[in-house]
């Protein structure tokens, strides 16, 4: 039966495009601020940097002047001054996270 469905042109044309992905539970770190997720968040028309600790689920939400790498680095430095530098930072890898200046910042 599966072979019939996979070879059926009409079935292929109308099959669901958004197949559900298998959820993978992330590994829980051993201490706070060891692994942190970050992304941008728009609130009332203003961009913010959102950072969430994987262990405690603690949230930092800071306004950004812009979403350029330098602006994000400035805000990250202020957050790191409070919590320390995480060992692992999880992001979507889009701009500005993949910029040269951000890569240099991560190497520091």
UniProtKB/TrEMBL annotation:
Say which domain of life the source belongs to: Eukaryota
Residue ranges constituting the Integrase catalytic domain according to the UniProt record = 28-108
Q: Which SUPFAM superfamilies match?
A: Ribonuclease H-like (SSF53098)
The molecular function terms in GO held by this entry are: nucleic acid binding
Query: What GO biological process terms does the UniProt entry carry, in alphabetical order?
Result: DNA integration
Q: Which residues form a coiled coil?
A: none
User: What InterPro entries does the entry give?
Assistant: Integrase_cat-core (IPR001584), Retrovirus_Pol_polyprotein (IPR050951), RNaseH-like_sf (IPR012337), RNaseH_sf (IPR036397)
- Which PANTHER family does the annotation name? INTEGRASE CATALYTIC DOMAIN-CONTAINING PROTEIN, PROTEIN CBG26694
What name goes with this protein? Retrovirus-related Pol polyprotein from transposon 17.6
Organism whose genome encodes this protein:
Trichonephila inaurata madagascariensis
């Amino acid at each position: 039966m599966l072979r019939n469905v996979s070879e059926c042109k009409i079935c292929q044309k109308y099959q669901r495009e958004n197949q559900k992905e298998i959820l993978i539970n992330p590994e829980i770190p051993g201490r706070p601020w060891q692994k942190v997720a970050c992304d941008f968040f728009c609130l009332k028309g203003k961009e913010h940097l959102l950072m969430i600790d994987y262990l405690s689920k603690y949230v930092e939400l800071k306004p950004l002047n812009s979403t350029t790498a330098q602006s994000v680095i400035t805000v990250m430095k202020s957050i790191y001054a409070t919590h320390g530098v995480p060992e692992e930072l999880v992001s979507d890898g889009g701009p500005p996270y993949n910029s040269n200046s951000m890569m240099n910042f991560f190497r520091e």
